[in-house]
Design brief:
Elements: H1 25-32, E1 41-44, H2 51-64, E2 68-72, E3 86-91, H3 99-115, E4 118-123, H4 134-140, E5 144-147, H5 153-167, H6 173-182, H7 187-204, H8 210-220
Parallel strand pairs: 1-4, 1-5, 2-3, 3-4
Helix pairs in contact: 5-7
Amino acid sequence: MRQLPLAIGPEPQPSFDSFIVGRNAAAAAHLLALKPPAAPVYLWGPAGSGKTHLLRAVARRFLAAGQGVGWFGHARAAPHVLDPGWALVAFDRCEALGEAAQQSLYALFEAAAAEGVAFVAAGRLPPVDLPLREDLRTRLAWGHVFALEPLAEAETRAALRREADRRGIFLSDEVMSHLMTRFARDLAHLMPLLDRLDEFALARSRPVTVPLLRQMLAEEGGAGAGEGEGAPPGDDAEMDRPA
């Protein structure tokens, strides 16, 4: 009989404390000190480089200080209207915006600038290469632009080990090496995989092993669904608004 996984506690919210800096110290330090009025900030880099983590971290810091935050993403329908109670506007996945959303984001950017509201945005491409209207690309490049780099392998291993320890999972060297050699080596892919593996192991009251990982992938539809291919996004997942 399979057991239903029991949630031990709430998942940790993205924060500056939980962000593994790696080679992205300048961006993290800048956002940690951000306060309005301030020049806009744009973060860019590949999946797993920490863009959404940093956006959520700065949003939660503002919320913890009692300041209003507007959170937007590519999937949130236009129009995007500035609320007078906001001190920060965060916009994720800029590379995926359609025509109507681009027009709305431009108006939101202009309104935030006029009101002295801090503005932070992120995308997978630098501003000059974004498939957006020229005036919007120019606005996103106005202020501080940070190129984020994925973690080195040792840092990725450390992040996985820390999360596994938090969950009470024994992640053997064999399992770790399998994860690092058979899957995309970034946290955007590996953390959701660890989530699924944890639930799968708990439901079957079995330790996390390479055979168990292979069984999980087979039941999900074969190794091709996970090994070497895209998995559910981590740092670019849509979040309607920080709570």
